[in-house]
Amino acid sequence: MARSDSEGMERDRESGRDRDKPLYMISVAAELTGMHPQTLRVYEQKGLVTPGRSRGNTRLYSQADIERLNLISKLTDEGINLAGVVRILDMRERMLARERELDELRDRVRELEDEVHEFRVKERITTLARYDASSNPEQVMRRLLLGGGSDDKGDE
Q1: In sequence order, what E strands does 14-149 have?
Q2: What is the mean pLDDT of each run of 10 residues along the chain (156 residues)?
Q3: Where in 1-156 does DSSP place strands (E)?
Q4: What is the pLDDT of residue 118?
Q5: Phi and psi at residue 60, in whole multiples of 5°?
Q6: Dist CA 92 CA 76 (whole Å)
Q7: 10 Å Cβ neighbour count for 149?
Q8: Architecture category of domain 2-79 in CATH
């Protein structure tokens, strides 16, 4: 289970990196968003979007930038001014960061719950199993789990 979870998280990280990879020149980004290239330049100037740059200093927009520009377009179409858009985008970024943090914390809680469960099972087995002074709880556990040994009490 942990393996498939980690593989899924790795895929999400890879797709996240793909979303952030600068690919589209300004003319393509303008066409994809339905905006004028000058509007994209103004949005960059105002800090609403930060495209990557090629070695020749050409603006390159990622898929994440395109999605952000589409959201900006939607918000401005609804009558929100650029100052309001900046605040909304900032709050959205903080919310997404908190959601990622919560997801990480939930994953950690699940791991800890599994560890506690395992510890409690070991503790129960150890208290139920008879052992003499020469054997320790780990040895008793090993004998019980391997199905042999004289410490088996039968069905309880």
Answers
A1: 24-25, 52-53, 59-61
A2: 50 68 95 96 94 94 96 96 94 96 98 95 76 69 66 44
A3: 24-25, 52-53, 59-61
A4: 93
A5: -130, 125
A6: 16
A7: 15
A8: Orthogonal Bundle (1.10)
